[in-house]
Design brief:
Elements lengths: L1 H32 L1
Length: about 35
């Protein structure tokens, strides 16, 4: 059960990191366009 919770936490953390990267990338592209 502990391992399952650990995997869930890692997956959520990676998804949050990916979302942050996408937001930063989109913001950079938006700045370049304007």
């Amino acid at each position: 059960m502990f391992h399952l919770q650990f995997v869930v936490v890692v997956v959520i953390g990676l998804q949050a990191l990916a979302v942050k990267e996408i937001v930063v990338l989109n913001y950079s592209i938006f700045q370049v366009i304007h």
